[in-house]
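Recap quiz, item 2
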Amino acid sequence: MEQGGRDEIAARRSRAVKTAWVLALVAALIFITFILSGVLNS
Amino acid sequence: MSIEHTHGHEHDSHAAHDDHHDHKPTGFLNRWLYTTNHKDIGTLYLVFALLMFFTGGAMAMVIRAELFMPGLQLVEPDFFNQMTTMHALIMVFGAVMPAWVGFANWMIPMMIGAPDMALPRMNNWSFWILPFAFAMLLSTLLMDSGGPAAGWTLYPPLSLQGGQSFAFVVFAVHMMGISSIMGSINVIATILNMRAPGMTLLKMPLFVWTWLITAFLLIAVMPVLAGAVTMLLTDHFFGTSFFNAAGGGDPVMFQHIFWFFGHPEVYIMILPAFGVVSEILPTFSRKPLFGYTAMVYATASIAFLSFIVWAHHMFTVGMPLTGELYFMYATMLIAVPTGVKVFNWVSTMWQGSMTFETPMLFAIGFVVLFTIGGLSGLMLAITAADLQYHDTYFVVAHFHYVLVPGSVFALMAGAYYWLPKWTGHMYSEKWGKIHFWISAISVNILFFPQHYLGLAGMPRRIPDYSTQFADFNMISSIGGFIFGVSQLIFVGVIVHCVYKSRQVAAGRVWEGAKGLEWILPSPPPYHSFNTPPVIDSSTVAHAGEAH
């Protein structure tokens, strides 16, 4: 495969990692929010 | 006849890929334990799901054997409750969900023209968490306090009365959740970032669309389940009172939180099934999918509505009349986008040049039988009626129609549809059809009488019952045994296809099939699409749509 193609795929993977971090953060926030809402209401 | 027998390694001119990079790792550990390849991980998921399907199925056989006749026959009541609980947990989290993740791993990169999933190492980790999670869950059956016995919903206070093994259950659920979230992150990151140039969102196959929406659902609701079971854990072992009324907690709150997770969970199991059926029906009808865009919007609508209907699972708990009315009407609203889907599937087949290979039989079986499950769901949505149906076998019949001839039939349809692509060999059409017909008949013998049992008042989750329910229970159990044993045919067909079949599959296995996966040879190279494929109307089903 050409170098250009590999660079393009590497750039896409880099964007994918950023997407993954954002999604993981959302999941963590939902978890923490639910726990905190329980703690604060108790 | 749609099978092309002649050319085993057909290369489409668009399928420019580097076969010289097609090096599989050598050695068992390298190939399977350390693999980062989407196809290998997909295979691991599918094999694991099949193992869990038979494990959960064996528990179902225990349940149906105990219920074969009135009276306590084979097992202690507490063990019976452990079986119903474990059967559900294993089928939901161990069989159906991992099977769909396996399909996603195998098919999404090939369908969007990507070389692999976006995050291959995390992909490996997502899978390898699962065997440990289920080993831990199953190990509770060997402990003094036994496995979980409060139902898969884990409602307190009953679930808090279990023994020390409850900690293992909670930790196993946490691990399953982490695995699902990581898998979903990978699916979204792959679809949003790794599509071939020209593969716009509204050119993606329906299976990819349904999985994209499913992955968002998973990320939204799995942390909710994790939060709920964490609070159960601290209530059980650390003296908190989130759900303990004696300490000022609210057990009904658990039900709200659980079903805020649990109802979208139902759609997590069924949306990919919609996707698979939307791939198969056009292929064997030799027509494009009717109303592609409407199908995408219907899927998104169903996903949205799944978040705002949770309390229809708990009408009997006592809630204000306005609440009951709201949840009743909101639930009924789901019938609209679901009706759009069923209408479009039927319209796709209408006046098509249909043939009835095994995947098509399972897909048609899905449309008919899932609709029966949908209609009984509408009956359950009626609050006043639900007060009678709640916790009866009518509910058991309803959700098993949605999940077995619904989700599981779609899994079977997808497996038969793509098995020649995955293995490079044709499966036995004769045995595939025998598998379908025995399954389709026995699944109705198994679950249809349960509607009558429920309407007559038989409660769920009991090992014994009044003699008035004896006949329908015996019929249901006979159907269950036939259905259970007939799934061994499926295993036989797969083993024969992988190891014995001499009938070589073409790249485009089915003449009516469109999509990027079919321009690759069968089996596809270890790394698919190192060079992005060309997207046009000859390769992609919806390339001609004006967007």
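Chain A touches chain B at residues 1, 5, 9, 12-13, 15-17, 19-20, 23-24, 26-28, 30-31, 34-35, 38, 42 (CB under 8 Å).
The radius of gyration of chain A is 18 Å.
End of item.
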